[in-house]
Every structure is written in structure tokens, then in C-alpha cells.
């Protein structure tokens, strides 16, 4: 990740979803009541702290779209999320490639899925910073804020974990 932009990343795992109904695809699972509450809480916390991404890249899965709706309502109604099919079941290289392609945005929010969100966080900040912030697993509606390390020297030093919000 050698480009100067984006300078801030927001990594948001979708909020808690219900189990798939019989015959329902995983892709179509919706947030459950707890998930809707989690999405609203983390979105309100982000807004209160002034966290407003320039661009939102969101998985096309229903539960991610619903999480994005909460973020949009709380932070900036004018932000239109970019829905990206590749974020659903996407691999770490896919997520990294999407971030690298955002040259014209100062800050980017990714709304996606575990385990890739956890893998992405570890790839960007290294295992020590990741484990300090997320000791067990990346929780639903967990929002990590990363800032580009302008003093970076060497692999794994490009990003600094600035904040970690949970509902």
C-alpha cells in the first residue's frame, strides 16, 4: 500500500444477523432486532466522534446494506454507499485491492464480513495491534478506525489503529 490516499480507513463488520430461514440464502439474511440496535448504536457513536467517511464500500449482502443504512442516517445522508459484490465472500487480497483502488478518497469505510475483516485488520496493523484491540474475534458492528502512518518504515507499519467502537 504505497499510495498516499486514503489517509483514514473505517472497517465495519455488519451488525448481528439472524439465522437463515429454511430455504433462505446466507446472502439474504437480515439483521435481527439486536443487530438493528447495534448498527444504530455504533453509527451514533461514530457520528458523535465526527467519523464521516468520504466513501463507503459495502457488501451487497442484505445485512451489510442494512448496516450501511444506519451509518448513512447517523453520519451523512448525502453519502451513497457503493455496493460491491466482491466484498461478499471476498478474500483478503480482494479487500486490499479495493482499498488500494480508492485513490481519490481521503477516507474510506468498508462494510463487510468476518473472517475477512479480521484478516484485513491484522494485515494492515499487524498481529500485536490487532490482538490488543480485538482479543477474541471481530464483533458484529465493530468499527475500527485506522489512520495512515506517515512515519511508516517497513511492512505492516502503514496503518495505526486509532479507535475501536463497539455497540
Automatic annotation (TrEMBL):
This is Histidine phosphatase family protein. Pfam families: His_Phos_1 (PF00300). It comes from the Bacteria. SMART domains: PGAM (SM00855).
